[in-house]
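Progress report, Aim 2. The chain analyzed during this reporting quarter is listed below.
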Amino acid sequence: MPDWPRLIRDIPDYPRPGIMFKDITPLLSDAAAFAAAVDAMAAPWRSLPLHAVVGIESRGFIFGAAMARSLGCGFVPIRKPGKLPARTLGEDYALEYGHDRIEIHADALPRGAPVVIVDDVLATGGTLAAAARLARRQGMDVLGASVLVELGALDGRSRWPDASPLHAALAA
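Predicted structure tokens for the chain:
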């Protein structure tokens, strides 16, 4: 198995002073490492009958779409405001460095569809928790979530809204 964690580099003070950004672009450019990272993120969900993987804009799209393909299910995007063309549901949330909003198509999946939510990094947990709330409001059955990297010092896991599993492929 490739040593994919070594390909995630730290960029200090991006996008704001005091933030340590996890740059995944070196990982994405290495085919074997990218495949290994996707496999690590998908592993806990292989035995579940998933309808879709729900990916959070923007880097969650990369891993979410690859995981959906690997798991043999669909992909549903959660986007920033104004990016989806049909009727949407929205959710406001706090970030490590501000506030934001995410949206999903109101008719993205049938009620009760089992899904896993995916993002690249779990920092303070605001985005992931908002995505779970939004998916549930749309009627999805959220079975859990998967992230590439969890920044444990920021305690984002404590904001995960329920007892469903939250899997991190790498703890930093």
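The longest strand covers residues 141-150. The CA atoms of residues 97 and 148 lie 20 Å apart. These observations will guide the mutagenesis work planned for the next reporting period.
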